[in-house]
Amino acid sequence: MKKIIVFNLLIISFLCSYAQIEKGTHLTGSSIFFNYQQDKNGKKLIYEQIGFGVMPNFGYAVKKNLVLGGGINYSFQLTKIFPQSSGFFFNSSISNSIGPNIYLRYYIMKGKFGGFLTMNANPSYGLLSYQNDNPNFPIDQRKYNIYNIKFQIGIAPGITYFLSKNFAIELQYGYLGYSLNYTPIQKDINQSNTQQTFNFNFRADALNIGMRYYFDKKQKEKKTQ
After folding, report:
1. Bridge partners (DSSP) listed for residue 214
2. How many other CB atoms are found less than 10 A from the CB of residue 188?
3. Between the chain's N and C termini, which has fewer beta carbons within 10 Å?
């Protein structure tokens, strides 16, 4: 909780600074995230989850401090549930998700440091593969795939630091938003399902690290002439 408060105080302090990203600036880059979680009963592992994602994107400053952009989001997640006693069996799931991302970001800078607030809209297509080792299940039910369609919109704060005039590293942590998850009727399920959730996420998977390259197209063209 203390880490969240300190991070938010950093964002607030940047909001009292000065902006330096001019209209007409282009930017391109990518963000990544990685998370690992586990749960143990004593020394025995009962749950394990590994996930990562990559988000290449581009943007254009439509006004001073205001960037409109888009990109592609891809994420992977592997979850394992281990048996603890007789009558329980190993279960696992693999999730792959990909989709476009549209964002609007407002920057406030002070020297090389800055803060930003990003609004994202992200429709995606996901494929979940399930497997269990329960011998009481028919063989064709021990492994199956389910696909779903998801849409989410939300806001996320972050900080950035310019390593040079054109290159910056950024850290985005936390997410507040709404998501809609639709699973249609398909081979392995006989009814559709719709879920709506409101998220306030400060878990490890809400931490994104990225690199950005900023450039002014007009200045670039002058250099090549």
Report:
1. 27
2. 12
3. C
Alpha-carbon distance of 161 to 165, in angstroms, equals 10
- Domain residues of the chain, as ranges? 2-224
> Quick one: 5 exposed, middle or buried, by C-beta within 10 A (0-12, 13-18, 19+)?
exposed
Tens-digit pLDDT profile for residues 30-68: 999 888 888 888 888 888 989 999 999 999 999 999 999
Full-model pTM: 0.77
Total residue length of the chain? 225
Q: What is the mean pLDDT of residues 3-15?
A: 46
**What is the Rg, in whole angstroms, of the alpha carbon atoms belonging to the chain?**
21
pLDDT tens per residue, range 18-33: 446 889 999 999 999 8
pLDDT computed for residue 170 by the predictor: 95
The CATH label, of 2.40.50.100, 3.20.170.40, 2.40.160.20, 1.20.120.550, for the domain at 2-224 is 2.40.160.20
Q: Which of 212, 205, 207 is nearest to 169 (CA)?
A: 212
How far apart CA 136 and CA 116 sit, in angstroms, is 53
Cα 221 from Cα 103, distance rounded (Å): 27
Tokens of 88: 């329980």
Distance of CA 207 to the CA centre of its chain: 8
